[in-house]
Amino acid sequence: MTRTETRRPPYTAPARRTAGTRALWLLIGLLLLAAVMAASLAFGSRDVGWSDVWSALGGADASLEQAAVTKRVPRTVLAVVIGAALGLSGCVMQGVTRNPLADPGILGVNMGASLAVVTAVAFFGLSSPTGYVWVAIAGAALSALFVYTVGSLGRGGATPLKLALAGAATSAAFASLVSAVVLPRNDIAGSFRLWQIGGVGGASFDRIGQVLPFLLVGFAVCLLSGRALNSLALGDELAAGLGERVAFVRALAALGAVLLCGAATAVAGPIAFVGLVVPHTCRLLVGVDHRWLLPFSALLGASLLTAADVVGRVVARPSEIDVGILTALIGAPFFIYIVRRQKVRAL
Questions:
Q1: Three-state SS sequence of the chain
Q2: Which end of the chain is more exposed for a tag (fewer CB within 10 A), N or C?
Q3: Domains of the chain: residue spans and CATH
Q4: What is the value of pTM for the model shown?
């Protein structure tokens, strides 16, 4: 058998899905999200019966169980919102760069936002929660620009593997810088654990409200980019021939993704691999049409992060494992699989 015959076939997009198939997966996705949200309210360091869950949702807080559910409600909402933001931003990044390895964590965007927040607090006295969001978005944008610039150097331009390597190196460097800033400062070291690992513990509706406007704008921009991303998937020349302003569309969609990444990192820290695993899984379920793929990525991202948070609370009782650790355990093998087995060049 010749070398040509043994070579693995190149990456091919999943077959088109019918409207009925997509509707079925939408129903399954909604049921899955409802199930993991219910599990998030019922399970943790203290298990709560369903009667107490319903009572707590109705406003009761007379017992410890009901009080525990009341405390878990904002945590569950935060996990859903952040998971949706990371899943959607990862899908947009893959569409904008036509890079199947794109993910806010892999490309160093999340860690750039984390470094920006830590630096602003440690050296410039930033204390406003709303200021965290602006600084995180700026750090995410600068990090994305830096990684794309580095990945574009040399022959072949910004190939998927070069972007992944540049992003991984940048993320590692930024993580080291975060530790270098935090460790000498005993007065702030404890509060900055979030920006080193990533998690949704300590959530409150006040914190969610501070980042919600940024997230809503990011969601709107990304979801409205679906048709344009379909055109970009055909190649820049063909997209331009179809009437798309390629540079403007790519910049606008990237801005939406950066808004989602920056806001998510500001409130939950650098959670990686959700934006890598979720879009690839959604392509297998609903196909490659971004008008369907983007909302499905948000839905599945919300389910994945919420489920990971529940597992982290259950397996290490009475303590917990931060959700950023669990998503890394899930996503790292998936990343290796894509790089070594799929042999992908572009989407």
A1: CCHHHHCCCCCCCCCCCCHHHHHHHHHHHHHHHHHHHHHHHHCCCCCCCHHHHHHHHCCCCCCHHHHHHHHHHHHHHHHHHHHHHHHHHHHHHHHHHCCCCCCCCCCCHHHHHHHHHHHHHHHHCCCCHHHHHHHHHHHHHHHHHHHHHHHHCCCCCCCHHHHHHHHHHHHHHHHHHHHHHHCCCHHHHHHHCHHHHCCCCCCCHHHHHHHHHHHHHHHHHHHCCHHHHHHHCCCHHHHHHCCCCHHHHHHHHHHHHHHHHHHHHHHHCCCCCHHHHHHHHHHHHHCCCHHHHHHHHHHHHHHHHHHHHHHHHHCCCCCCCCHHHHHHHHHHHHHHHHHHHHCCCCC
A2: N
A3: 75-342 (1.10.3470.10)
A4: 0.88
